[in-house]
Amino acid sequence: MVVALPETEEQVRQVLQTCAAMxxxxxxxxxxxxxxxxxxxxxxxxxxxxxxxxxxxxVDPLARIAVVQPGVRNAAISEAAxxxxxxxxxxxxxxxxxxxxxxxxENSGGVHCLKYGLTVHNVLRLRGFTINGEPVEIGAEAPxxxxxDLLALAIGSEGMLVVVTEVTVKxxxxxxxxxxxxxxxxxxxxxxRAVAEVIAAGIIPAGLEMMDRxxxxxxxxxxxxxxxxxxxxxxxxxxxxxxxxxxxxxKRIREVLQRAGASRMSESRxxxxxxRFWSGRKAAFPAVGRxxxxxxxxxxxxxxxxxxxxLNFIGQMEKKYGLRCPNVFHAGDGNLHPLILFDANKPDxxxxxxxxxxxxxxxxIEVGGTITGEHGVGIEKINQMCVQFRPEELELxxxxxxxxxxxxxxxxxxxxxxxARCAEYGRMRVQRGKLAHPELPRF
Length: 443
Fold this sequence. Notes:
36% helix; Uridine Diphospho-n-acetylenolpyruvylglucosamine Reductase, domain 3; 15 helices; Alpha-Beta Plaits; 20 strands; eight-stranded antiparallel sheet; alpha+beta
């Protein structure tokens, strides 16, 4: 493996052209904070690190945009926009380290994506190159661009279609005021139903997050966020806007949560306390890392109304596999992050954790959800793609890949499985009693 560290667009173009001519695979990489193995390089390819593309090229407060290079940290965009009273809304838990290029590749979200959207809703334009070194510009700074929506195609494509060298993002005005309600529930399934009832009441909070008791205990030992440790689960529900809007919405949220079965509720009384409530949620992953030698962070999305059912299923899987699993997730959009605790030094625990995770992902599919919300497919979930999608759908994905990258050199082996791989996995979808592509061997 060779690592390339370009500093200019011309250097990126030359690397790609050379690799295309020689048939060498290329894997773009940002900060390496991804959780699905999407930036792992092949042994015989080029790792194209975008770490030196870390300049904020322009902040335009009148147009409310920022033009940045892909190696810029997510949090750095908001820091640069703050003097103008603006910020960049998507806020994944790794925002102090993850880069905007990686966010584009995975279509990252965060705790406030329920109201403000994912990366795809907050990016206006991308510049970059195809594997052949051909320059591309997708989208525009204007609110709309003619033609097919290639921007939505490129965002979330996990580095398989283009190498991004410049990103134009939307900036939003910083909210005047914000307040968080912490609601405690004595039953996990009741807490899950409460999430659906908040949205059903016509309320779209700025953030709606849920943590179960094992997660809150891990977090409280780590950061002292002030969580209710007696609760089976807590909801963090944030409202932002003008002070009048926030007070009105908070009142409505309290009423809904009370009817939904919340046993206790408390509101943030200051900005410092609001940030402390959120610090616990954002520190959940490292907090869990302190209580277990290893953990497996999952990422699946389900319909909100099925939250309670799926959480009960995860509890059953804990007993089946003999592994603990704290739960933290973006409850508002049903994006689960079960954290399966294991010790890789103990025989068979890694295998059991992987089997546990696979069952959770396939449960997400069963209830009408999907195998990823924001972490991507990478290599981690590629087998579950065979479960979620029909062969015809996978072939369509591969056709899109070939349109951008005919030789399959850009981040090969990620996200979209071949039909042969699905056959090997033994999970090629059967419809009406017939197996598609019977000519492919099954093992």
